[in-house]
Write a structure and sequence with these properties.
The chain has 19 helices and 20 strands. By secondary structure, it is of the alpha/beta class. The strands form 4 sheets. A 6-stranded mixed sheet has the order 6-7-8-3-9-10, with helices on both faces. Strands 16-17-18-13-19-20 form a 6-stranded mixed sheet, with helices on both faces. Strands 2-1-4-5 form a 4-stranded antiparallel sheet, with helices on one face. Strand 11 and strand 12 form a beta hairpin. Helix 15 crosses helix 16 (about 410-425).
Length: about 500
């Protein structure tokens, strides 16, 4: 950007409270345009809350915000956008209107805010304007394609395009690479670098994937328990140091897998195919106390396999057996009745009821355990069990009445797992269970799965994070294009071999 003067944004002494929780306590934050700044912290550290203050989603904070040493007032999203600040949230499906096309979604803010009083919309100009924004980002995407027909990566590109359709000085990206493949992540990084270095946008990059931070970020702010830990340049730091700053303690080098005796085969999937061939001719088995991995790149069919086994996608052919009994799984309700549990990838959309309290989420899969005669629910019994589970899992919440929406991502995931522990399933299916959670919560989730193995339960662990697959599983099935292409013993393989088969090698 040559000699262009950078814009400086400062947040000073930012504090905010929610019922029973002080989420931020006198936090200072600073970022400049033309730079890429990492914001990290364990789940519940307050980083997303701080960015929601900056983007106008929360208005009841105390403290001050300055742009180029001039105090500004941000109490609504419109305030933030008028000052050139925008955010792209992790849950992209929530932010897009599925039945509108790409151009309408990109130009949405302009259509809503600047077309008031006008009787006609020049749709040709709307599409031309959207095309100009996409061209500015180097994105090739049909502006007439409906949002509901886009891939996750394309939806994210549309949201970034919307954010910069008007002049933006600062862009916040919240866990932007969580749903992306390696190729899609590289494309996102190209766009982020172009925004920062060629268009002088300050990018605030929230991520738990530490290698990405070293690849793309120049500065870093670390938060813990709603407070600032440090703000410094990335240069001279390593991943271990960042994790220790996040956790406030020394970390073990790696997760120590539970030592569990593996028994006989308790679960079998034979020649399983999904109706639309998203998964084809799948054969896997799980023994008691065993954790099997389903490895593969994004789009390999891991999620579809999990959902097909659980009855959320229709089975075209094949058999599923539990304790040598043939199961007839036509829907998730039957799957639950027959002893299966699924912790889905999209936890906010499919795994928890975000507007309901913690206690009712924890009992959701086992309500019959909390009813008396005539099937009336016994709330006291339900709450007592929930309080015990909250303690057992270390769920960070003021009490069992807290709405799940107000919990951190890692604690939401613990709730999603906890409801199945209360249901006492036989086979637990985990689909990307650590997506968007920090190293501390990840270790807790690993311990939970290890605990299940110790109880003789069988677990299926689907993930594109190969280091996790290697850390927690006993055997690994590798998927490519909807099929199992290789079975490996975890103790005898490595990331390179798994990746080889994940990319179609044979």
């Amino acid at each position: 950007m040559g000699q262009q003067k950078r814009t400086k944004l400062e947040m000073k002494n930012i504090s905010i409270e929610f019922p029973g929780v002080k989420a931020l306590s006198n936090v200072d934050f600073e970022v400049e345009s033309g730079r890429i700044h990492a914001l990290v912290g364990a789940n519940g550290a307050g980083k997303s809350t701080l960015m929601k203050v900056l983007s106008g989603a929360y208005d009841h904070y105390t403290g001050s915000i300055f742009i180029n040493d001039k105090e500004v007032n941000i109490r609504t999203p419109r305030d933030a956008k008028e000052l050139g600040i925008d955010i792209v949230y992790q849950e992209v499906d929530v932010a897009l209107i599925p039945y509108l096309d790409v151009a309408e979604n990109i130009m949405l803010d302009i259509l809503v805010n600047k077309m008031k009083g006008k009787q006609f919309v020049n749709w040709r100009e709307v599409h031309a304007s959207a095309r100009r924004v996409l061209d500015r980002l180097g994105i090739k995407l049909d502006t007439r394609k409906l949002a509901q027909d886009l891939t996750l990566a394309e939806k994210q590109m549309v949201l970034i395009a919307r954010a910069i359709a008007e002049e933006r000085r600062f862009l916040i990206l919240d866990e932007p690479t969580a749903p992306l493949s390696n190729k899609e992540t590289k494309e996102l990084f190209r766009i982020v670098r172009d925004l920062a270095y060629n268009q002088d946008v300050g990018v605030i990059f929230i991520s738990h994937r530490l290698p990405e931070l070293f690849e793309i970020c120049e500065d870093i702010t670390v938060m813990k328990d709603g407070q600032l830990v440090t703000r410094r340049k990335m240069e001279g730091l390593d991943g271990k140091q960042i994790v220790e700053l996040m956790l406030g303690k020394k970390m073990d080098e790696e997760y120590l897998k539970h030592n569990v005796e593996i028994g006989e085969t308790i679960f079998e999937v034979k020649n399983l195919s999904e109706k639309d061939d998203a998964v084809k001719d799948i054969n896997i088995h799980v023994r008691s106390g065993e954790i099997i991995g389903i490895a593969g790149l994004v789009g390999a069919g891991k999620t579809e396999l999990c959902k097909t086994i659980f009855g959320a996608l229709p089975i075209k052919s094949g058999k599923i057996k539990l304790h040598n009994n043939l199961l007839n799984i036509k829907n998730p309700h039957i799957a639950v009745q027959q002893g299966l549990a699924l912790v889905p990838e999209e936890r906010r959309k499919e795994g928890v009821l975000v507007e309901e309290p913690v206690y009712s989420n924890l009992s959701a899969a086992s309500l019959s355990n909390f009813t008396g005669s005539l099937s009336f629910l016994k709330p006291h019994k339900e709450r007592v069990a929930a309080v015990k589970m909250i303690g057992d899992l270390g769920i960070k919440t003021p009490n069992e009445n807290q709405k799940v929406a107000f919990l951190s991502g890692g604690n939401q995931q613990k709730v999603a797992v906890g409801k199945w522990l209360m249901a006492d399933a036989e086979i637990y299916i985990f689909d990307e269970p650590t997506k968007g959670v920090d190293v501390g919560a990840k270790s807790d989730i690993f311990d939970l799965i290890g605990h299940l193995a110790g109880l003789g339960k069988g677990s299926i662990y689907a993930s594109s994070e190969l280091s996790e697959i290697l850390a927690i599983t006993d055997r690994i099935y590798v998927m490519y294009d909807g099929e199992i292409v290789k079975e490996l013993l975890t103790s005898e393989t490595n990331e390179e071999e798994i990746l080889y088969y994940s990319t179609g090698g044979n």
